Amino acid sequence: MDLWTKALAVNIAQILLVLTCSSWTRGEQDICDSPLVSNLQPSSFRSSSQLSSSHAPFFAKLNRRDGAGGWSPLVSDRYQWLEVDFGERSTITAVATQGRYGSSDWLASYLLMFSDTGHNWKQYRQEDSIGFFPGNNNADSVVQYKLQQPAIARFLRLVPLDWNPSGRIGLRLETYGCPYTFNVVSFDGSSSGLVYRVSPGQRQSSRDVVNLKFKTLRNSGTLLQLEGNEGRGLNLQLERGKLLLLLRKGKTSSSDTRHLASLGSLLDDQHWHHVSVERRGSHLNLTVDKHTERTGIDFELILGEVQTRTYPQSTISRRSFHGCVENLSFNGYNLIELAKHNSHQVTGNMTFSCTEPVSVAVTFNGPQSFLQLPWTKTSPETTVSVGFQFRTWNKAGLLLTFDLWQKKSVVWMYLSEARLQLQVHNEGKLVLELTAALNDGQWHLVELQSRQGRLTIVVDKGEGGSAQGSLSFPVAIEGHLFFGGCPIEDESPECINPFSVFQGCMRLLTLENKAIDLILVQQKQLGSYSNLQIDMCGINDRCSPSHCEHGGRCSQTWNIFHCNCSGSGYSGATCHSSVYEQSCEAYKHNGNTSGYFYIDVDGSGPIQPQHVYCNMTEENTWMQIPHNNTDLTKVRPTPGVNQLSLHFDYSAIDNQLLAAISQSEHCEQELSYHCRNSRLLNTPEGSPFSWWLGGPSPGWVQTYWGGAHPGSHQCFCGLQGDCVDPQYYCNCDADRAEWTEDSGLLSHKESLPVRSIVLGDVQRPGSESAYRVGPLRCHGDKNFWNAAFFDKETSYLHFPTFHGELSADVSFLFKTTASSGVFLENLGIRDFIRIELSSSTQVLFSFDVGNGPLEVSVTSDVPLNDDRWHRVRAERNIKEASLQLDHLPVSKQKAPADGHFHLQLNSQLFIGGTASRQKGFRGCIRSLQLNGVTLDLEERAKITPGVQPGCPGHCSSYGSFCQNQGRCVERTNGFHCDCSLSAYTGVFCQTEVSASFKSETSVSYTFKDPHRGGRNSSALPSSIYSDLTLREENVSLSFRTSQSPALLLYISSYYREYLALLINKHGEGTQAFILKIFVYLYLFSVFQIDQKPTEHFNLTSDTEFNAIKSLVLGKVYETDGLDPDLARLASLGFTGCLSVVRFNNSSPLKAALFLPESSPVSIIGPLTLSTCGSASSANPYASENTHHLSGKRGRNQPLVNAIRTDSALIGGVIAVVIFVILTGLAITARYLYQRKDTYRKQEGKEVKQDERPEFRYSSSTDPPNLSSENQKEYFI
């Protein structure tokens, strides 16, 4: 054979080898359901025991009648098992069971365990949670279960859990599957390993895939290195039982490394784990078993070498991998198979087998778990040595206890707050404590030694700490040692456990440096035990992968996990539900006013909450998102740079911005350019000088300016046709020496937000410019008002299947007049989810994930069919189900600890109706969200008979938000408060309208002139005064001043009747005020200052206040006809703050401040809008405080007046109350009722005098000298 022929033969052999190696994975995709048990020899069967030779385990073949017709153990308890050896590793896809033929013996449930060696068993779990399989209900029928994930093992062990209570354990079984093809290599932690060099023709720039399986007992070591171009590479590295993917730049220990991903936990369990690393360009996927984490790098990595050999002097980890690897492939090439055939691309010293050390572990499941071992020494010794390894998640539990030869002496070794403690009790107490936390799930070695009275405890060869202590007597063990717990007291009085039981695993137990054979314990040939699983460690990491969402921190014990949601912005058992509303609109409809809020635009979705400012106006609710520069900024050109590029960083990240814009009804952003000899858009050659980038990051180039349309290449003035130079479409393009500007709003949502601007004409001599990009502002929430009305119980909307396998939350608002109906339903084969109004006062949330139906309900104290909006929030996760209605307490229901947790649905999602023929819902459903995604009810309702888009009528639910006589006005999407009849303003008419007054300030509000024909008429019909002749007055205001005396309010009439409201300082040096009211005829029946209780005063019997002319706040310039003292006081004016002034239906101060041109109001002097009247502006330690005054008189009632001042006023007047009682009644009748000749005569009625002292508004304490007989003065 010549050289050419030899080379051709080698190439053909290599091609065949590659084809063979690259096709190994296809076998797993073939049909794999052949019987595996029926043809096995009797030697392939083992069992814990057998009832007789005819009940031997090899009779346990499906449908066979040999022997006694199946296997039955000697004793029927949960410590029995049946084991099958398939002879080689096989893929098991299904298991079938049957009872013992012709008997009443069968299994009701059982466990399945698998192993490669006959030791170190691993329990098979469905959905990673459910460990048991339902069995049979008679002896003849066959029950078969297809495994969700095929198991690969040589040995199968079946453990009975429950059986027919009228019989005993009886079993025939079959398993189905196929042989498993594998190539394996083992590594001993030395420098030996496998190196595969990729040939230049095999290198790919777009995609690389590495697959392998590994098993190990060591929790750390470098598993794989992938060498790339330019000294870069990837490392797969075990650290404390987790697999890390690291990016390495260089090969030395000082190389720059970056952590890319980490997956898995407890990977040092000596079981096979599948690993895959996939690179697609700069994107990387790491998969460990069934879980994948995605990451990326900022460059493309072209792999040229794959190696399992590690060099301590040049790699990141100084620990090499110690264990076995099988089916290692790179881009489809089986590298172990290539190494077996001595391919020149693969080098290294390898052992093509997997040598596994036998390590028998024992699992303490609690609470009755214990292991009792005898102490073989029969006489006291001066030395004691006990050792073992343990792993657990619990912070507390008894590890070991034993008695000493000395009477009343006992030793306890236990965990407390995750720290190891040793306590020796002998009429005293010696406690040794180690500070290292040992509940991390890792294996920890504990060594206890005593020599000549000195006790030593060491953890992890000293890495976990050590402690020593001296005793006054030698330590000598008597009787037995108890690990993990104690038997029931009646069975073993020598063991006392004052601590909690241990839940975890132990292995490598030694007594006096001799290993304990736990298989002998299992066979009950050594010691005793209870509730243990021997030859396996059943620890599970419930935090890997973590079911805590949105950054919640996972912690766990042996049985459960807990999510700490603090600081995440989410709540619930798995941190699934957002604690924030999804928009400013939603906050408004909770009754909030303007301020900073966190909004979560997608609720329980992946987008994190963002901090925004919500500006609640009477018309719209604006959401404002700022960036790093919203001010008008002068351009400072950089020498040598023709264009200035400016980037804007927003307080929200890109996905938050885009989601907020998408769900808003309208968004806008100001864009302005101020210029002098600086052109904006139009250049002589047609390309723009300046442009901006907007939309999704990094943004699209936009060549129009604020106020214009996209693609128009214009500014706002060009759109309006009023630019300073008609030849151009922007003011700045006129290139004038005077300052001008191009400003406007950008409102095309697809182009927002503005990411950056580029300014081009900024370097010419004499050019000056400034720019401003305002904050992003949006209003409206399309999701919040998305609604549908179901007018029939048979109408419904349908949507695609709801996918909420592990976490599902549903939220919506409803209103109805019906007493029951189904809101939502989605069905599966057995699973379902449903929310319904079960009665007029109850909402019911029910579902089934395979554990049987579970219901959560909330009952309201008030009817829910009141045609008002009610909010429902339902959540289901693997820990619990919860339901909340409005603001009622959340109702919760715990999920089974080891049950099914995947919600598997396959039908359409029904809204407002049901596929199960239950009663549908009649009413409105709004803002329906499933896992943070809003369903577009309105769009679907447009094409669905019996369902109407939208749902009007919101004031019945939200009208109570309108305060202070504000009126709720309906809108298609929501409501707003009309404050036109209120003295307040704001989104809910809650903001006080206040003004600061100077001494010369005067606000005069003029009522309609009743003298329509002229002022000289002597006989005017009473109808002229009908609208201004009042039988009821309602006056309210707030004031804040240090002036005394002062006139607060003056109301005059065309008949010289007037009302004057004034204050006077009480005494010298005090800040209490006396309020005086000058009135004619009826005034108030309710009179109150601040929040004090009202008091009533009967002043007169007159019934009308006729022909009101005007109301004056502040200084009164027209004082003709006034009492001289009052006129003098009116001319002084008022200095201070007046707020929320209201006279009947008129708000004169509000009219003066907001409608001075269109209202019958005149203003003299300075009047400044202020917040001086708000509670927050009043300093409780200042001399000026705000007082709230209100007065009211009812129709045809005797006039009653009431006033309560603050405590200082009350204290000031108590001293003269007795004087008033004795003298007031004698003198008040003469002055209280006098009438003018122009009025009709009325019989005077005596009025009861207020039992308070009278104070003038001047410094004199004498009674006032009235100049007109018709005027009356009342001091209140």
From TrEMBL:
Laminin G domain: residues covered: 184-354, 360-537, 786-951
Localisation per UniProt entry: Membrane
Protein name, per record: Contactin-associated protein-like 4
Stored Gene3D superfamilies: 2.60.120.1000, 2.60.120.200, Galactose-binding domain-like (2.60.120.260), Laminin (2.10.25.10)
Secretion signal span: 1-27
Pfam families (UniProt xref): F5_F8_type_C, Laminin_G_2
Alphabetical list of PROSITE patterns matching this protein: EGF_3, FA58C_1, FA58C_3, FIBRINOGEN_C_2, LAM_G_DOMAIN
Entry's family note: Belongs to the neurexin family.
Chain's gene name: LOC114479192
Domain F5/8 type C: 32-178
PANTHER family to which the protein is assigned, alphabetical: CONTACTIN-ASSOCIATED PROTEIN-LIKE 4 (PTHR15036:SF40), PIKACHURIN-LIKE PROTEIN (PTHR15036)
Cysteine pairs bridged by disulfides in the record: 924-951
